[in-house]
C-alpha cells in the first residue's frame, strides 16, 4: 500500500532522490535516464550531444516497447511461448543489425542505454531460448552482451 503512494503503477522500480527535494520517479528506463542526466554530468555513462540524446531515447523506447513486454512473457505464458520466442528473435535481429555496424547503441561508448537491455537479454538467453544457437545467429549481439556483463556496474 505505501508503495502505491509513490508509484500508482504498483510495480518496481521506484526511486526517491533524497538529494533532489525527495523527487520520486518510477519505471526503469525513466530512472536510468534521470540518473544519467542528473548525476552523470561528465557524460561517462550517458551522452552529451543533443542528437545522441535522441538516439538514446530511440533505443530506450525500443527497449520498453519491444524488448520488455515480450522477453518477460516468453517463459510465463505456455500458450504463447512460440509467439514470444519469435518476438525475441525479432528484437535480437534489430539489435544484431545495429551492433554489427557499431560497438555500442549510442554515442560510440557504453551507456545506460546499453545497460537497459541486459536484464531481459540475459533472461532470454538463459531460459527462454534454450536449444537456440544465439552465438551463431547473433554474434555481434552476444559479443556486446558479454562486454556489458563483464562490467562491474552490470553485476
TrEMBL record:
The GST C-terminal domain extends over 49-155
Task: Name the Pfam families on file.
Answer: GST_C (PF00043)
List, for all copies, the residue spans of the domain called GST N-terminal.
1-43
List the InterPro entries hit by this protein, alphabetically.
Glutathione-S-Trfase_C-like (IPR010987), Glutathione-S-Trfase_C_sf (IPR036282), Glutathione_S-Trfase (IPR040079), Glutathione_S-Trfase_N (IPR004045), GST_C (IPR004046), Thioredoxin-like_sf (IPR036249)
Q: Which SUPFAM superfamilies match?
A: GST C-terminal domain-like (SSF47616), Thioredoxin-like (SSF52833)
Protein family membership: Belongs to the GST superfamily.
What is the protein name stated in its UniProt record? Glutathione S-transferase
Q: What is the lineage of its organism?
A: Eukaryota, Fungi, Dikarya, Basidiomycota, Pucciniomycotina
